[in-house]
Amino acid sequence: MKASKRDITAGVMRAMPVPEFDKSDLSRLQAATRAYLSAAKNFTKEFQPRGTKAKSSGKKGKSEKSSSGQLGLGLDGDNRDEEIAAARERLRALHWRVDAEVLRLYALPPERERELLDAFDGVRRVGVPFEQLRYIPREFRDVLTLDEFLRITDERDATESRRCELIEKRIKTGRRTAEEEAEFRELQRLLMLHRRYYNPLPMIDEKKLERLLKEDRE
């Protein structure tokens, strides 16, 4: 069911999935939000000089939004470009974790979540101190959810650290719980996705491959 233009019918509203917040565990969303807000506050304190105000001459002040829609940060052009870029990327990753936790509450099927994420492809996000034109690259179809994509990219160190913990436990004790075994299999799958994302296989000529396989069988 779809709505057109600005009007949304009651039927569409009833069909829209809405999280039951009174029955949901919001702790992960709360933690992600606090982490982002803390980092954003530190970013402003670190890189935006105090007392930066828009001038009254009619010219755009440093504290105003830039033409790109991003928040102006009042930077003085010092030589910390790499540090600033890294800090912006960190803010993006933290904000995407907030987005991922919100999506988790909606519990969309993975295919629908990817469809939703793809809808923002090429759309500039405004009101944030980092650049964003997409979530997951459209050509990378092996990952469907934002949570998975974060775990194989920005949060890769934490993902791999947990995988190593489970390996070490198996070595030391000779066993893992059923829940840990399931978690380890998932972490192994994420490892494969990580490798596939950063080291994609070359394009395969399927017809040529099929012909070679046929010749090999013969």
Quick description:
The chain is mainly α. It has helices spanning 10-15, 27-47, 81-106, 110-118, 146-152, 156-173, 178-198, 206-217. Helix 2 (27-47) packs antiparallel against helix 3 (81-106) and helix 6 packs across helix 7.
Structure description:
With 218 residues, this protein is mainly alpha-helical. The chain folds into two domains: 23-50 and 61-139, no CATH class; 155-203. It contains eight helices and no strands. α2 (27-47) packs antiparallel against α3 and α6 (156-173) packs across α7 (178-198).
* N- to C-terminal distance: 52 Å
Q: Roughly how much helix do the residues carry, as a percent range?
A: 55-70%
Computed CA radius of gyration, to the nearest angstrom? 23 Å
Classification by helices and strands: mainly alpha
Number of domains: 2
Estimate what percentage of residues fall within beta strands: under 5%
Q: Which of globular, elongated, flat, extended, rod-shaped describes the shape?
A: globular
- Low-confidence runs of at least 5 consecutive residues: 53-69
Largest sheet: none
Query: What is the N-to-C succession of helices and strands?
Result: HHHHHHHH
- Mean pLDDT across all amino acids: 84
| Beta-strand segment tally | 0
How would you name the oligomeric state of the polypeptide chains in this document? single chain
Number of helical stretches of at least 4 residues: 8
